[in-house]
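Quick one: structure for this chain?
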Amino acid sequence: MSYARHGDFPRALALGHALADAARGIARGYFRQPIEVEQKADHSPVTIADRAIETEMRRLIRAEFPTHGIRGEEFAAEAGAEFSWVLDPIDGTKSFVTGFPLFGTLIALEHQSRAVLGLIEAPAMGERWVGAEGMATTFNGAPARTSGCAAIGQARVYCTSTDCFRGDELKRYEACTRRAQLRRYGGDCYIYGLLASGHCDLVIESALKPHDFQALVPVVLGAGGRISDWEGRPLTSQSAERVVAAATEALWTQAVAALRDA
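Got it. Here's what it folds into:
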Protein backbone atom coordinates (compact mmCIF):
# COMPACT_ATOMS: atom_id res chain seq x y z
CA MET A 1 0.00 0.00 0.00
CA SER A 2 1.39 3.41 -0.95
CA TYR A 3 1.71 5.93 1.83
CA ALA A 4 -0.87 8.24 0.22
CA ARG A 5 -3.45 5.54 1.15
CA HIS A 6 -2.24 5.22 4.74
CA GLY A 7 -4.71 6.34 7.39
CA ASP A 8 -2.25 8.84 8.87
CA PHE A 9 -1.37 10.42 5.54
CA PRO A 10 -3.72 13.44 5.77
CA ARG A 11 -2.34 14.31 9.23
CA ALA A 12 1.25 13.82 8.12
CA LEU A 13 0.76 15.93 5.01
CA ALA A 14 -0.87 18.70 7.05
CA LEU A 15 2.01 18.55 9.52
CA GLY A 16 4.53 18.71 6.68
CA HIS A 17 2.93 21.95 5.50
CA ALA A 18 2.88 23.30 9.07
CA LEU A 19 6.58 22.54 9.44
CA ALA A 20 7.33 24.27 6.14
CA ASP A 21 5.20 27.27 7.13
CA ALA A 22 7.10 27.58 10.41
CA ALA A 23 10.45 27.31 8.63
CA ARG A 24 9.42 29.96 6.12
CA GLY A 25 8.49 32.46 8.80
CA ILE A 26 11.64 31.96 10.88
CA ALA A 27 14.00 31.93 7.89
CA ARG A 28 12.56 35.14 6.47
CA GLY A 29 12.99 36.83 9.84
CA TYR A 30 16.74 36.15 9.81
CA PHE A 31 17.50 36.28 6.08
CA ARG A 32 19.80 39.14 5.02
CA GLN A 33 20.05 40.29 8.63
CA PRO A 34 23.33 40.58 10.57
CA ILE A 35 23.68 37.24 12.37
CA GLU A 36 26.65 35.35 13.73
CA VAL A 37 27.92 32.42 11.68
CA GLU A 38 29.57 29.57 13.60
CA GLN A 39 31.70 26.73 12.24
CA LYS A 40 30.73 23.18 13.16
CA ALA A 41 33.22 20.36 13.67
CA ASP A 42 33.00 19.45 9.98
CA HIS A 43 33.73 23.11 9.08
CA SER A 44 30.24 23.69 7.72
CA PRO A 45 28.47 26.89 8.84
CA VAL A 46 25.52 27.08 11.24
CA THR A 47 23.43 30.02 12.47
CA ILE A 48 20.75 30.81 15.01
CA ALA A 49 18.25 30.46 12.15
CA ASP A 50 19.20 26.80 11.53
CA ARG A 51 18.74 25.97 15.20
CA ALA A 52 15.55 27.99 15.67
CA ILE A 53 13.87 26.34 12.68
CA GLU A 54 14.78 22.81 13.73
CA THR A 55 13.73 23.48 17.34
CA GLU A 56 10.29 24.61 16.23
CA MET A 57 9.84 21.77 13.76
CA ARG A 58 10.71 19.23 16.44
CA ARG A 59 8.18 20.80 18.81
CA LEU A 60 5.42 20.54 16.20
CA ILE A 61 6.26 16.92 15.40
CA ARG A 62 6.25 15.86 19.06
CA ALA A 63 2.86 17.50 19.54
CA GLU A 64 1.25 15.73 16.56
CA PHE A 65 3.10 12.39 16.41
CA PRO A 66 4.77 11.74 19.78
CA THR A 67 5.79 8.18 18.83
CA HIS A 68 7.63 9.21 15.66
CA GLY A 69 11.40 9.47 15.56
CA ILE A 70 13.18 12.68 14.58
CA ARG A 71 16.57 13.10 12.93
CA GLY A 72 17.79 16.57 12.11
CA GLU A 73 21.03 18.19 11.09
CA GLU A 74 21.54 20.31 14.17
CA PHE A 75 20.47 18.22 17.19
CA ALA A 76 20.69 14.67 18.46
CA ALA A 77 18.37 12.04 17.01
CA GLU A 78 15.21 11.10 18.89
CA ALA A 79 14.27 7.44 18.59
CA GLY A 80 10.83 6.47 17.39
CA ALA A 81 8.83 3.49 16.28
CA GLU A 82 7.80 2.83 12.69
CA PHE A 83 8.11 6.34 11.27
CA SER A 84 10.81 9.02 11.52
CA TRP A 85 11.02 12.62 10.34
CA VAL A 86 14.26 13.76 8.71
CA LEU A 87 14.90 17.50 8.83
CA ASP A 88 17.34 19.93 7.27
CA PRO A 89 16.34 23.34 8.64
CA ILE A 90 18.42 25.31 6.15
CA ASP A 91 19.78 23.37 3.22
CA GLY A 92 22.29 25.78 1.77
CA THR A 93 23.45 27.68 4.84
CA LYS A 94 26.31 29.14 2.77
CA SER A 95 23.71 30.59 0.41
CA PHE A 96 21.61 31.81 3.34
CA VAL A 97 24.45 33.71 5.04
CA THR A 98 25.57 35.32 1.78
CA GLY A 99 22.09 36.58 0.89
CA PHE A 100 21.51 34.13 -1.98
CA PRO A 101 17.78 33.27 -1.97
CA LEU A 102 17.89 29.69 -3.27
CA PHE A 103 18.36 28.02 0.11
CA GLY A 104 15.64 25.72 1.39
CA THR A 105 14.18 23.66 4.19
CA LEU A 106 13.94 19.91 3.66
CA ILE A 107 11.31 17.81 5.42
CA ALA A 108 10.97 14.04 4.94
CA LEU A 109 8.95 11.33 6.60
CA GLU A 110 10.54 7.89 6.52
CA HIS A 111 8.90 4.52 6.89
CA GLN A 112 11.51 1.93 7.79
CA SER A 113 14.32 4.06 6.27
CA ARG A 114 12.41 4.76 2.99
CA ALA A 115 11.19 8.31 2.37
CA VAL A 116 7.40 8.29 1.81
CA LEU A 117 6.72 12.03 2.11
CA GLY A 118 8.97 14.92 1.16
CA LEU A 119 8.78 18.71 1.02
CA ILE A 120 11.21 21.18 -0.50
CA GLU A 121 10.42 24.59 0.99
CA ALA A 122 12.12 27.67 -0.50
CA PRO A 123 11.35 30.38 2.08
CA ALA A 124 12.80 33.41 0.30
CA MET A 125 11.05 32.50 -2.94
CA GLY A 126 7.69 31.58 -1.42
CA GLU A 127 7.82 28.26 -3.26
CA ARG A 128 7.15 24.69 -2.14
CA TRP A 129 7.31 21.27 -3.76
CA VAL A 130 5.47 18.38 -2.10
CA GLY A 131 5.77 14.72 -3.03
CA ALA A 132 4.55 11.49 -1.46
CA GLU A 133 4.58 7.81 -2.31
CA GLY A 134 1.46 7.21 -4.39
CA MET A 135 0.78 10.91 -5.03
CA ALA A 136 1.74 13.21 -7.90
CA THR A 137 4.16 15.99 -6.93
CA THR A 138 2.84 19.51 -6.60
CA PHE A 139 4.48 22.93 -6.83
CA ASN A 140 2.64 25.58 -4.83
CA GLY A 141 -0.43 23.36 -5.05
CA ALA A 142 -0.36 22.81 -8.83
CA PRO A 143 0.88 19.66 -10.60
CA ALA A 144 4.63 19.47 -11.23
CA ARG A 145 6.14 17.33 -13.97
CA THR A 146 9.66 16.68 -15.15
CA SER A 147 10.73 17.37 -18.72
CA GLY A 148 10.77 14.67 -21.35
CA CYS A 149 14.52 14.86 -21.84
CA ALA A 150 15.84 11.39 -22.67
CA ALA A 151 19.44 12.01 -23.75
CA ILE A 152 22.48 13.49 -22.03
CA GLY A 153 23.34 15.45 -25.17
CA GLN A 154 20.10 17.40 -24.80
CA ALA A 155 20.21 17.70 -20.99
CA ARG A 156 20.43 20.80 -18.84
CA VAL A 157 22.59 19.70 -15.93
CA TYR A 158 22.89 21.19 -12.45
CA CYS A 159 25.29 20.66 -9.56
CA THR A 160 25.51 22.88 -6.51
CA SER A 161 29.31 22.98 -6.65
CA THR A 162 32.13 20.83 -7.97
CA ASP A 163 33.71 21.33 -4.53
CA CYS A 164 31.49 18.44 -3.41
CA PHE A 165 33.45 15.93 -5.50
CA ARG A 166 36.35 13.97 -4.06
CA GLY A 167 38.82 11.45 -5.44
CA ASP A 168 37.80 10.40 -8.95
CA GLU A 169 34.26 11.80 -8.60
CA LEU A 170 34.99 14.98 -10.59
CA LYS A 171 36.43 12.91 -13.44
CA ARG A 172 33.31 10.73 -13.42
CA TYR A 173 31.05 13.81 -13.36
CA GLU A 174 32.91 15.35 -16.29
CA ALA A 175 32.75 12.12 -18.29
CA CYS A 176 29.00 11.97 -17.73
CA THR A 177 28.13 15.61 -18.43
CA ARG A 178 30.64 17.02 -20.89
CA ARG A 179 28.24 16.24 -23.79
CA ALA A 180 25.32 18.00 -22.09
CA GLN A 181 23.48 20.90 -23.69
CA LEU A 182 24.49 23.12 -20.77
CA ARG A 183 25.81 22.89 -17.22
CA ARG A 184 24.96 25.24 -14.37
CA TYR A 185 26.06 25.47 -10.74
CA GLY A 186 24.52 26.59 -7.46
CA GLY A 187 21.12 26.16 -5.89
CA ASP A 188 21.36 23.39 -3.26
CA CYS A 189 17.99 21.62 -2.84
CA TYR A 190 16.28 24.19 -5.08
CA ILE A 191 17.71 22.58 -8.20
CA TYR A 192 15.85 19.34 -7.46
CA GLY A 193 12.65 21.36 -7.39
CA LEU A 194 13.61 22.85 -10.75
CA LEU A 195 14.08 19.31 -12.06
CA ALA A 196 10.66 18.27 -10.72
CA SER A 197 9.09 21.23 -12.53
CA GLY A 198 10.83 20.53 -15.84
CA HIS A 199 13.30 23.44 -15.87
CA CYS A 200 16.43 21.28 -15.75
CA ASP A 201 16.95 17.63 -16.59
CA LEU A 202 19.80 16.13 -14.58
CA VAL A 203 21.36 16.76 -11.17
CA ILE A 204 24.55 15.01 -10.04
CA GLU A 205 26.08 15.60 -6.61
CA SER A 206 28.13 14.02 -3.85
CA ALA A 207 28.97 14.61 -0.16
CA LEU A 208 25.25 14.54 0.75
CA LYS A 209 23.79 13.12 3.94
CA PRO A 210 20.31 11.63 4.46
CA HIS A 211 18.93 14.96 5.68
CA ASP A 212 20.14 16.45 2.38
CA PHE A 213 18.44 13.93 0.07
CA GLN A 214 15.58 12.02 1.74
CA ALA A 215 13.01 14.78 1.14
CA LEU A 216 14.03 14.97 -2.51
CA VAL A 217 13.12 11.36 -3.26
CA PRO A 218 9.27 11.57 -3.18
CA VAL A 219 9.37 14.95 -4.94
CA VAL A 220 11.43 13.71 -7.90
CA LEU A 221 9.68 10.35 -8.18
CA GLY A 222 6.21 11.86 -7.92
CA ALA A 223 7.03 14.27 -10.76
CA GLY A 224 7.98 11.41 -13.08
CA GLY A 225 11.75 11.44 -12.57
CA ARG A 226 14.28 8.96 -11.21
CA ILE A 227 16.66 9.45 -8.30
CA SER A 228 19.24 7.07 -6.84
CA ASP A 229 22.86 6.79 -5.80
CA TRP A 230 25.50 6.73 -8.52
CA GLU A 231 25.30 2.94 -8.73
CA GLY A 232 21.56 3.09 -9.44
CA ARG A 233 20.45 1.87 -6.01
CA PRO A 234 17.36 3.46 -4.38
CA LEU A 235 18.13 6.08 -1.75
CA THR A 236 17.42 5.21 1.89
CA SER A 237 18.66 6.48 5.23
CA GLN A 238 21.58 4.04 4.86
CA SER A 239 22.67 5.31 1.43
CA ALA A 240 26.08 6.80 0.81
CA GLU A 241 26.79 10.36 -0.29
CA ARG A 242 26.37 10.27 -4.08
CA VAL A 243 23.06 11.28 -5.69
CA VAL A 244 21.90 11.40 -9.30
CA ALA A 245 18.43 12.65 -10.26
CA ALA A 246 17.06 12.66 -13.80
CA ALA A 247 13.92 13.77 -15.60
CA THR A 248 13.27 10.41 -17.27
CA GLU A 249 14.11 6.74 -16.95
CA ALA A 250 16.10 6.85 -20.18
CA LEU A 251 18.22 9.83 -19.09
CA TRP A 252 18.79 8.29 -15.66
CA THR A 253 19.92 5.01 -17.22
CA GLN A 254 22.46 6.86 -19.40
CA ALA A 255 23.74 8.95 -16.49
CA VAL A 256 24.22 5.99 -14.16
CA ALA A 257 26.04 4.07 -16.89
CA ALA A 258 28.30 7.02 -17.66
CA LEU A 259 29.14 7.59 -14.01
CA ARG A 260 29.86 3.87 -13.56
CA ASP A 261 31.97 3.42 -16.68
CA ALA A 262 34.07 6.60 -16.45
